[in-house]
Amino acid sequence: MVSTLPVSLEDIRAAARRIAGRVTTTPMVQSVSLGELAGVPVHLKLEHHQTTGSFKLRGATNAVLSLSPAQRLRGVVAASTGNHGRALAYAAKAEGAVATICMSRLVPENKVSEIRRLGADVRIVGVSQDEAQQEVDRLVREEGLVMVPPFDHPDVVAGQGTLGLEIIDDLPEAASVLVPLSGGGLAAGVAAAVKAISPTTKVIGLTMEKGAAMKASLDAGQPVQVEEVASLADSLGGGIGLDNRVTFAMCRELLDDVILLTETEIAAGMRHAYACERQVVEGAGAVGIAALLAGKIRGGGPIVAILSGANVDMGQHLRVINGTQPLYGEEGP
Questions:
Q1: Under a CB-based contact definition with an 8 Å cutoff, are residues 144 and 74 in contact?
Q2: Known catalytic residue at 56
Q3: What is the pairing mode between strands 121-124 and 99-103?
Q4: Which candidate in 45, 56, 111, 202 is catalytic?
Q5: Helix (H, G, I), strand (E, B) or coil at 169
Q6: In degrees rounded to 5, what are phi and psi of residue 203?
Q7: How far apart are CA 205 and CA 182, in angstroms?
Q8: Helices assigned H by DSSP within the chain
Q9: Which of 160, 199, 154, 215 is nearest to 45 (CA)?
């Protein structure tokens, strides 16, 4: 089944060899508190400890290393909600290439400033990922830059899939893997790796309740546009592209379920991560914990929840922790 899809287990293993030494093999720890709540063992994959604070470094590094020297010389460009931009800026700089990152005005300033610090050329365009992508398309067409998409590219998906290899290496008996879901690069890559090695392991995508483009597309049977809205899980925002070539098909084939979470549930996940697990994670990185706390995960264990990112504005994080952060589209505390 997996071999017929755009990214295979062999592609992911090749990516693991390619990026070895350039990304961190992140730890996985058992959560006593979540295990007691779920009634089965729960493990947390601490991918927010990655060098650039999120899983995105895996895919960006694999994609940059897969380019020819001539392509790197032209410079790379991408649209981003923040974490891919930071990862691509880092990966490009490591290989002597220049990165241009296009983002909408919804991207938090802490993510924008970090991308600038890494030396990338930052373009703020419009109020959606789709508008930022239009600027990317122009730069590719008019200036010859090489696009490295945030998710819908085989090399990016294969790089993200290396996270799935690590999970199964560490816990081959995993019954379910909980994966944050946005454009589907992480979910597709992890699912491709996990399902190829352990076909009975469930892979469940988790996303915010409003503006969930992949969920809406899966329900419609084809890629569709959704309104992009502000969320604590800002990294999960944006569309999947109406011409999606890779991640839609893979998520449709490989994901066992997609679960939606409210802003209140996401905030609870962030608070639990900090108070009980001693981990600072952004909203997108807390959705696995949030789903467990909300009782939305059924079945046996062990369960692995991926904590995908830590690039949160610390002022917002403190407000979430102390219950004073207004929640987007919901009544505040």
A1: yes
A2: yes
A3: parallel
A4: 56
A5: helix
A6: -120, 120
A7: 9
A8: 9-19, 32-38, 56-65, 69-74, 83-94, 109-117, 129-143, 154-170, 185-197, 213-220, 247-254, 263-277, 287-293, 314-322
A9: 160
Quick one: tokens of 74?
Answer: 């032209």
d(C-alpha 103, C-alpha 118), whole Å: 15
Provide CB contacts within 8 A for 240, sequence distance 6+. 151, 152, 183, 184, 213, 214, 217, 223, 247, 248
- Evaluate whether 88 touches 59 at the Cβ level (below 8 Å): no
Main-chain phi, psi angles of 114, to 5 degrees: -70, -35
Enter the tokens of residue 245: 């070539």
Q: Per the confidence metrics, is the pTM higher than 0.85?
A: yes
For every one of its 333 residues, what pLDDT tens digit does the chain have, with 9 covering 90 and above? Answer: 445 899 999 999 999 999 999 999 999 999 999 999 999 999 999 999 999 999 999 999 999 999 999 999 999 999 988 889 999 999 999 999 999 999 998 888 888 999 999 999 999 998 887 889 999 999 999 999 999 999 999 999 999 999 999 999 999 999 999 999 999 999 999 999 999 999 999 999 999 998 899 999 999 999 999 988 888 988 898 889 899 999 999 999 999 999 999 999 999 999 999 999 999 999 999 999 999 999 999 889 999 999 999 988 888 898 999 988 888 765 433
Cis peptide before 302 (omega within 30 of 0): yes
Residue carrying the six token digits 């890494």: 118
